[in-house]
Design a protein that fits this description.
Keywords: Membrane, Transmembrane, Transmembrane helix. The chain is an all-alpha fold. It has one domain. 52% of the residues lie in helices and 0% in strands. It is elongated. The relative contact order is 0.09.
């Protein structure tokens, strides 16, 4: 992170007035990154679960298309 060395994550939006523009922008970006990191483990778990469910669905009825999971494009294959 570029900018002032004494600028930490403890700054909030109301403190941006006291910072120069570049460090404020950098801080904003870094706080977003920190939040994203904070959320990610739970999101990963949810994503894995969703994928597992989708896999099971596709195995059971052969209906959902793997490339477009939300739209069910291919009807079941009639053998």
């Amino acid at each position: 992170m570029t900018g002032d060395k004494n600028v930490g994550y403890e700054y909030h939006a109301k403190d941006y007035i006291f910072l120069n523009c570049s460090s404020a922008v950098n801080l904003f970006i870094s706080t977003i990154i920190m939040q994203a990191r904070h959320i990610s483990p739970q999101r990963k778990r949810e994503k894995k679960q969703r994928e597992k469910v989708l896999q099971l669905e596709t195995q059971s009825n052969g209906y959902s298309c793997p490339h477009h999971r939300r739209r069910r494009l291919h009807p079941p294959r009639l053998t």
